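[09:14] KT: can someone run the structure on this one? pasting the chain below
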Amino acid sequence: MRYLAILAALSLATVLGCTQPIQKPTRVTLDSPRPPHASEPLPSTMSMPQPVISPAEPESPLVVSLPNRSAVVESAARLVGARTISSQGRHITYDCAGVTRAIFLEHGIDLYLGYAGDRKENGVRLIHNHVRQHGILYQDADVHPGDLVFFDNTWDFNGDGRLNDPLTHVGIVEELEADGTVVFISRVANAIARYRMNLSQPHVHKTADGRVLNDYIRRKRPTDPADTARLTGELFSFYGNLLSPQKSPSSNNQQQISTSSSPVDLAR
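[09:31] RB: done, structure tokens below
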């Protein structure tokens, strides 16, 4: 069995790292500062990461039994606050797609499997393609813990200054609150944290009593139009269900994520 190690560190660094083109992986060490509260606007000075997404692997057989939803959610919750992630023998990028991939790897599912498209695809699109092939994509309110949540236009992926960038962020649903607010776990700014989204009131950040309905997920840029959407509910794209469809692929070996007290590297 392989083991993934996660470290919570307090060093200063950057990034909204969820949308990186694929290239040959390089060895890196990632350290990030304590993240801003999820309900605060993302800082405009955040820089984008260098692309380091590992290529997908060949298709593997389908699993006979799917992971338990609560187990997947527990794996995601255990990573809240972590600022580095490494894998022994497998390259895992510390961005929203890499973190999501690592959580499912612990339960025997590699979300990057089955990729055969454009080599410039980002990790979010790899995961979306995987769900499209082996799971269910949907947009209705019947969301469950352990499902994936996808977003569009969380940053200018193609660099043309326009809001035409689908599938730029992904997270894992942790719970559905009584008022319909979805709590999901993802790496957005500088660390893995909990974020909220309420699709019945997508343009509302906070209620009059200060309760957060939709967190900021796109940083404010001087070049953005004044009415540019920045909240989770405004940039929502799809949910993805891999845990209760009729079929789902698996990696050969299940892997466990754990925390560590010392810095670790991302190495293939």
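[09:33] KT: thanks! The helical segments are 69-78, 96-105, 123-134, 232-235.
[09:34] RB: yep, looked fine to me
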